[in-house]
Amino acid sequence: MPPRLIAASGFGHPALVLGFALSLAAALPKAVAAEPMGHGMSGHQHHHMPAESTANIRRSTADYRVPGLDLVRQDGTKVKLRQEIDDGRPVILNFIYTSCTAICPTTSQVFSQVEERLGRENKAVHLVSISIDPEYDTPARLAAYARKFGAGTHWQFYTGSSTASIAVQKAFEAYPGDKMNHLPSTFLRAAPGKPWVRLDGFATPESIVREYAQLGSN
Question: Which residue range(s) make up the domain with 195?
Fold first, then answer.
């Protein structure tokens, strides 16, 4: 069932999205935007997203069913995705791949800032990043990527088979058909059985934290 639209503001053609991602990447510090994937970032490097990015967000809600698939965390542990996500904690989720040079560094930097802005509250929230390029994104590469963005223990990264990755993307209606057509989306849910809030576009740390604060009312 397609998501129920709450508010929209012209997200635009994929080519425009990519252009916007590149402009955001140019605005980010060189350590994030220019450094090739696979080279480390020392600790958290916290910076503000451009304010105009909030104008490109489309918000909707939907009842996505988390599939009971086998995935692998960045620490090499095999897990059931449904058990990982349905552990009672609020979830903030996105899809990434570590060789991405435009969208993923931007959205991963946002997640890093969300962790910081949540403060002590971040221990109660499960941040989830799922690879859409599992053939390349081994647990070791995901672990290096997590370190690059200073991910805390409550922000976890997952890989698995291509079949599993595609199934998860389809479950969230986020399968682009090819990783090069990947678009930025963030998914939030208060608890198992609650609806998901979906933010299509380059959500800022402020907008994600604000949505998190409102989850209890959904």
Answer: 7-31+54-217
